[in-house]
Design brief:
It is a single chain. With 365 residues, the chain is of the alpha+beta class. The protein has three domains: 208 residues, no CATH class; 89 residues, Alpha-Beta Plaits (2-Layer Sandwich), CATH 3.30.70; 34 residues, no CATH class. The protein has 14 helices and 17 strands. The strands form seven sheets. Strands 2-3-8 form a three-stranded antiparallel beta sheet, with no helix packed on it. The protein is globular, with a radius of gyration of 24 Å. 33% of the residues are buried. Bound molecules: iron/sulfur cluster (2 copies). One iron/sulfur cluster binds next to helix 1 and helix 2.
Length: 365
């Protein structure tokens, strides 16, 4: 059976107590993933290994020991395959993210078919089929917007593919009447697995995790997509699409009047899409590194940072780091620390608030 693990340093909740990301919880068909007090937990033995959480996690925090989506994509392309199916090496089509599906469609010379023939008899099909349909709809929309003459077709080819051994054992587990049945079959299979995996796995944050958080990283699937874009036909016009039509990347606007230069957004950004210089005098944004995790918005108290309502596909072909705001940095007369000066007194926001509170306390106007 598949073993699911979580790299806690990659989950946005670990570094940001205001994070609202709930994507893995929402997609898990057996509802084993929970977020409690900002820490993700799940029971490893409840996991049916569909890979949905891995595909939907913006920061690729999950790992299945027996399925790596990137390896799958390269094997699929090397073997010039055409059909995506849970009857082959894929645990479920839901294990492929929008970026991986789009990369496959862009690079493959074939018209790819997603075989959903087994979904109706699969105990997790009711939950996963709409997710698969939505993802493929997004991919096909993007292919059209990128002027690619391709589509991923959804078809029911159930009887036409020979099952691999891996797929046979998965099917034995999943193709039953319902999740209750799955759980009882899993109980038999889980006798072979460590008993401790039956327990709720509550992740703890270690010093190593903190070091990893500071390193920042971009999921491999983004590199794959950029490579696929380079290999595919360049559109004649770079179209702009509504942000609701793209789930994995964004462009930002920043209201410089309300931004306090608290630095939280770029400190919290897990990929380094938001950054600054050594003096903290700018906020830069690189859309190609953004994974739409929403963490920067969750932490911005004055709501100065917003997701642009449209997304220009030119970002993929003519990458540009945008400077969202520039500050004049001066030293505060009170505390001596650098701050974003906006004219008037040479006092940072924190000292100003402290002064106002002191005045209120002592009744000074
Ligand atoms: S960042 Fe990933 S692991 Fe964390 S809550 Fe979001 S989807 Fe789940
Ligand atoms: S810019 Fe914001 S939404 Fe994009 S990756 Fe960084 S924190 Fe996430």
């Amino acid at each position: 059976m598949s073993l699911l693990t979580l790299d806690v340093s990659k989950c946005v909740h670990t570094s940001n107590k205001f994070a609202i990301c709930n994507k893995c919880v929402e997609v898990c068909p057996v509802e084993t993933i929970k977020i409690d007090e900002n820490i993700v937990s799940f029971i490893p033995n409840d996991c049916v290994g569909c890979g949905g959480c891995d595909a939907v996690c913006p920061t690729s925090a999950y790992d299945l020991d027996d399925f790596k989506a990137i390896d799958f994509v390269f094997t699929f392309l090397e073997n010039n395959l055409e059909i995506l199916s849970c009857k082959s090496e894929l645990p479920c089509i839901v294990a492929l993210s929008v970026e991986e599906l789009l990369s496959l469609a862009l690079i493959s010379p074939n018209n790819i078919i997603a075989d959903i023939g087994a979904c109706k008899d699969c105990s997790i099909g009711t939950k996963n089929l709409p997710l698969i349909e939505n993802r493929i709809e997004e991919v096909n929309f993007l292919l059209e917007a990128l002027e690619q003459d391709k589509k991923i077709a959804l078809e029911e080819l159930n009887s036409e593919i020979e099952l691999t051994q891996d797929a046979l054992s998965r099917r034995k587990l999943l193709s039953k009447e319902g999740l209750k049945k799955v759980v009882s079959i899993k109980e038999q299979l889980d006798n072979e697995v460590l008993a401790s995996d039956d327990a709720l796995k509550v992740h703890t944050v270690t010093t190593k995790d903190i070091i990893k958080i500071k390193q920042k990283s971009i999921p491999d699937r983004r590199g794959l997509l950029l490579m696929a874009m380079k290999r595919s036909k360049i559109p004649e016009v770079y179209h702009t699409i509504d942000i609701d039509n793209i789930s994995f990347i964004s462009q930002k606007d920043l209201d410089e009047d309300t931004c306090t230069n608290c630095q939280m957004c770029y400190r919290i950004c897990p990929t380094g899409a938001l950054s600054s210089d050594a003096k903290g005098s700018v906020i830069n944004f690189n859309p190609l590194s953004c994974v739409q995790c929403h963490s920067c918005h969750d932490v911005c108290e004055p709501n100065s940072l917003t997701k642009r309502e449209s997304f220009s596909l030119a970002s993929f072909y003519e990458p540009q780091i945008e400077t969202l705001v520039r500050f004049t940095i001066k030293r505060c007369d009170e505390c001596g620390l650098p701050f974003a000066y906006r004219g008037g007194e040479m006092m940072c926001d924190r000292c100003r608030v402290e002064e106002e509170e002191a005045h209120e306390l002592w009744g000074i106007k």
